[in-house]
Amino acid sequence: MMETIKAVCLFSGGLDSILVIKILESQGIDVKAVMFVSPFFEDRSLGSPATLIETAWKKWQITLEVVDLTEPYFPMLKSPPHGYGKNLNPCIDCKILMLKKAKKLMEKTGARFIATGEVIGQRPMSQRRDTMRIIERDSGLEGLLLRPLSAKLLPETIPEREGWVDRESLYDISGRSRARQMALAEKFQIREYPSPAGGCILTDPVISKRIEYMLKEQVEIQADDIALCRVGRHFVWDDGTHLIVARNQAENARLTSLAPRGQTLLKVRHFPGPLGLFSSRGPDSAKLLTAAEIVCRYSKARHENSVEVQATEVKSGRERILTVTPRWELNGIGCSHL
Ligand code: SF4
């Protein structure tokens, strides 16, 4: 009996990776899809690993393994050997990290190669011909990394040379147009797939700045800190003091649930308004008062002269009432809007 060839495919949930799995399966290859999750991309807002696995199977009959990349991601993000893209996105090292992990899975499961949905010229940093070569080399996968959508435009890989995969049935897609992928979706009867969204917050200029600030100011960063970077308006002082002001009801709930133990929640009394989350390195009542003034500025009490703000220490639950005047002007107080 002929041995079934196994492969591991990086799965993002987008059309390109779905297609790659279908292309390989149509050649009789047994494909194990692996999805990497982290607070930066494909975060928990998409659901628990169990939900992701169930969705992949229900929608596309894809067998999925979900791997959390958070822990190794932080040290890489602080100083990626191949640098950042336009924002804080270390795309080349991010891909290398994922592929190194996928290589381990390949070895563990007896798969012979790895496939990705990468398309030459689709992304400015990680999907250029030269960087694709670097990614293949630095992940230790020389010859074993197949990009079926662009394979005919790339040097032949071992799976093609060895006849595990039929190169002639692969594709020569390049660039940012989605037309050929959509035609392939028709061919493989893939009716439901997410639009190509920028699912990675490291490419977002505003959130990138906040994460960069946290990486610089905090000794230890955790997934919840990154989740906080997605929430509210951020105000920072030169000494690392930080205020986040929610923008709506949902963000109020998010701030409350994410509030780290060493921080203080600020709530305007007697008027509807946003919550603030304040943190400073040491006791600093002057900055706490300024933070309360800023929070008032976004509340219904913004035109009042004297407003009470409840300051609750998250860790101890200790409460204080501060009386302040809403602050409209940030100039001259050493605080900036991130
Ligand atoms: S966009 Fe984000 S997830 Fe994608 S390769 Fe770049 S850093 Fe990684």
Would you kindly provide a brief summary of this structure?
It is built from eleven helices and twelve strands. The site of iron/sulfur cluster has 10 residues, from helix 4.
Would you mind describing this structure in some detail?
With 338 residues, the chain is an alpha/beta fold. The protein folds into two domains: 6-187, 3-Layer(aba) Sandwich (Rossmann fold), CATH 3.40.50; 231-337. 35% of the residues lie in helices and 17% in strands. It contains eleven helices and twelve strands. Strands 11-10-8-9-7-6-12 form a seven-stranded antiparallel sheet. It has a five-stranded parallel sheet with strand order 3-2-1-4-5, with helices on both faces. β1, α1 (15-26) and β2 form a beta-alpha-beta unit. The protein starts with 5 loop residues before the first strand and ends with a strand. The mean pLDDT is 93. Residues 41, 89-91, 94-95, 126, 200, 202-203 line the site of iron/sulfur cluster.
